[in-house]
């Protein structure tokens, strides 16, 4: 009887304690439960995003190409120039005496969202067993060099290789069985500028119509293709086009305006993509024109100046240099949007327009000894087309990374 009384007393007290704790701490328990639930949902969302293969983005809620540059000394640059021995000497500005580093610290911030942080390990994992090829001119090679620099720090020295078999530059991450290449084809079509080492000697440029397969046979097995072409078409003169006449193999030489010739090249690219690429397995990108800053009067600078000694950004959000031709942008839009196989456009033009501070300028390896008159006037030989690395091409690759893996 006494035992039962104690049991009843114990149960009653326990019940009172439980009611007390539940009453006063129910909100905390609810918060803990809701927090755990939220964490699980967030983790699931992240896992779903990470597991996306080559995400085809169709949402237009955020245009990542519209934004502004933000100075960031914390997360920029994403690597140091000396940490990337594989980058081409032409764009290693610090090694060639550039005294300032502010150009390395700018981050691109879209107006209505943020870019995902570049994760080299994630990208390498997604590239496992795959091949990515950058095809185009030296600006595309700069983006290729940037991509290697972004990835190679996550790969042990013994597990990576770099080889040159002109016109191919091949980087391999052996443990991932992943390959990243650059293929020199400045017109995408066959031309008299296809020799990588001697193309600069060609002042009279000639392109063969209907010849994309000459180069494209080397791209067929790619899982990701990143194309660019622009600067070589813009000679200021008509381009010479070799065209077959009739069925007898006879050829004729005609001249085309730059816009018409460029449209011809893009039509051939689209035709080849539609015929050879499987959109369920391959992603195709086209990078728009890179900005040049060769005439400083366009942004209110000196009459005879250019990008030489420029260390500040252009702040006018509507600035558009004359080198970037709007009619060519229309051609890109018209021709690529007509493709039956999706071609994602990386519109780098406007965001690059603001960066007059980030070009190679005079800080590069030169192909020949500079003349006294050149040394006396540095702006006369400043390169205002190509970009220092680290720098602007890293942002192009952040945008590529975003479009690849995050809708």
Automatic annotation (TrEMBL):
<keyword id="KW-0472">Membrane</keyword>
<feature type="domain" description="Trichome birefringence-like N-terminal">
    <location>
        <begin position="60"/>
        <end position="114"/>
    </location>
</feature>
<keyword id="KW-1133">Transmembrane helix</keyword>
<keyword id="KW-0812">Transmembrane</keyword>
<keyword id="KW-0735">Signal-anchor</keyword>
<comment type="similarity">
    <text>Belongs to the PC-esterase family. TBL subfamily.</text>
</comment>
<dbReference type="GO" id="GO:1990538">
    <property type="term" value="F:xylan O-acetyltransferase activity"/>
</dbReference>
<keyword id="KW-0333">Golgi apparatus</keyword>
<dbReference type="InterPro" id="IPR026057">
    <property type="entry name" value="TBL_C"/>
</dbReference>
<protein>
    <recommendedName>
        <fullName>Trichome birefringence-like N-terminal domain-containing protein</fullName>
    </recommendedName>
</protein>
<dbReference type="InterPro" id="IPR025846">
    <property type="entry name" value="TBL_N"/>
</dbReference>
<dbReference type="Pfam" id="PF13839">
    <property type="entry name" value="PC-Esterase"/>
</dbReference>
<feature type="domain" description="Trichome birefringence-like C-terminal">
    <location>
        <begin position="115"/>
        <end position="402"/>
    </location>
</feature>
<dbReference type="InterPro" id="IPR029962">
    <property type="entry name" value="TBL"/>
</dbReference>
<dbReference type="GO" id="GO:0000139">
    <property type="term" value="C:Golgi membrane"/>
</dbReference>
<dbReference type="Pfam" id="PF14416">
    <property type="entry name" value="PMR5N"/>
</dbReference>
<feature type="transmembrane region" description="Helical">
    <location>
        <begin position="6"/>
        <end position="25"/>
    </location>
</feature>
């Amino acid at each position: 009887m006494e035992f039962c009384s104690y049991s009843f007393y114990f149960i009653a007290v326990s019940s009172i304690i439980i009611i007390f704790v539940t009453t006063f701490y129910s909100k905390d328990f609810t918060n803990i439960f809701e927090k755990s639930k939220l964490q699980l949902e967030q983790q699931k969302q992240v896992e779903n995003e990470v597991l996306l293969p080559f995400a085809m983005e169709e949402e237009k809620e955020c245009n990542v190409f519209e934004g502004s540059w933000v100075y960031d000394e914390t997360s920029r640059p994403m690597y140091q120039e000396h940490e990337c021995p594989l980058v081409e000497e032409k764009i290693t500005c610090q090694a060639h005496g550039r005294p300032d580093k502010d150009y390395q610290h700018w981050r691109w911030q879209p107006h209505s969202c943020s870019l995902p942080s570049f994760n080299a390990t994630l990208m390498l994992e997604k590239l496992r067993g795959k091949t990515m090829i950058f095809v185009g001119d030296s600006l595309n090679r700069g983006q290729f060099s940037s991509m290697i620099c972004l990835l190679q720090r996550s790969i042990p020295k013994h597990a990576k290789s770099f080889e040159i078999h002109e016109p191919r530059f091949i980087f391999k991450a052996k443990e991932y069985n992943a390959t990243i290449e650059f293929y020199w084809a400045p017109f995408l079509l066959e031309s008299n500028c296809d020799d990588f080492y001697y193309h600069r000697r060609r002042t009279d440029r000639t392109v063969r119509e209907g010849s994309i397969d000459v180069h494209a046979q080397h791209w067929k097995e790619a899982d990701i293709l990143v194309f660019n072409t622009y600067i070589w078409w813009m000679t200021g003169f008509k381009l010479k086009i070799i065209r077959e006449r009739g069925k007898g193999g006879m050829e004729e030489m005609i001249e085309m305006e730059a816009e018409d010739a460029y449209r011809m090249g893009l039509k051939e690219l689209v035709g080849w993509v539609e015929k050879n690429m499987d959109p369920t397995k391959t992603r195709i990108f086209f990078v728009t024109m890179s900005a040049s800053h060769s005439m400083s009067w366009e942004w209110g600078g000196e009459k005879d100046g250019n990008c030489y000694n420029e260390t500040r950004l252009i702040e006018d959000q509507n600035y558009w240099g004359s080198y970037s031709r709007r009619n060519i942008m229309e051609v890109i839009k018209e021709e690529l949007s007509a493709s039956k196989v999706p071609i994602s456009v990386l519109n780098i033009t406007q965001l690059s327009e603001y960066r007059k501070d980030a070009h190679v300028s005079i800080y590069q390896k030169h192909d020949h000894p500079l003349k006294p008159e050149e040394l006396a006037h540095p702006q006369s030989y400043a390169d205002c087309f190509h970009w220092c690395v680290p720098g602007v091409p890293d942002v192009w690759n952040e945008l590529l990374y975003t479009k690849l893996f995050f809708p």
